[in-house]
Write a structure and sequence with these properties.
Elements (H helix, E strand, L loop, with lengths): L5 E6 L2 H12 L2 E2 L7 E5 L12 E6 L12 E5 L2 H11 L2 E2 L11 E5 L5 E6 L6
Parallel strand pairs: 1-4, 5-8
Antiparallel strand pairs: 2-3, 3-4, 6-7, 7-8
Length: about 130
């Protein structure tokens, strides 16, 4: 049986991207980053094969494709607070007109243009 171990995001500035994703997810470096690669793990992950997806950042040298063909969905009990926090960390709102009226997600980009959705998991606002 397969499981997702690591999700790899391509980046141009590994320091900036690493700072963003460590702060966004509370993840930690698995080991010291190189100039073009770092793996970030949940802080309580005991070894690389333990449950819990890791995020790797890779400097590839080729430009980001738009729209990207893959993105992360991040779940949030307090969607508005998490969006505000992520924007303060350097995320950007994506100007997108494809939201349905009952959308429970908001599309953002990290500091490198990698898209992700912040999905509301808590009670619906009144």
């Amino acid at each position: 049986m397969l499981s997702i171990g690591t999700i790899v995001l391509t980046v141009e500035d590994i320091t900036r991207a690493g700072d963003f994703w460590r702060a966004a997810l509370g993840y930690v470096n698995r080991s010291e980053p190189s100039d073009d690669w770092v793996i970030l793990d949940p802080p309580d992950k005991e070894h690389w094969g333990a449950p819990g997806a890791s995020v790797a950042l890779s400097v590839t040298g080729y430009p980001q494709a738009y729209p990207p063909r893959i993105h992360l969905d991040l779940y949030a009990d307090d969607q508005a607070a998490e969006i505000a926090r992520l924007l303060a960390l350097g995320a950007h709102e994506v100007d997108w007109d494809g939201y349905p009226d009952d959308a429970d997600w908001v599309v953002l980009e990290d500091t490198e243009g990698n898209r992700f959705c912040v999905v509301a998991t808590g009670p619906a606002p009144a």
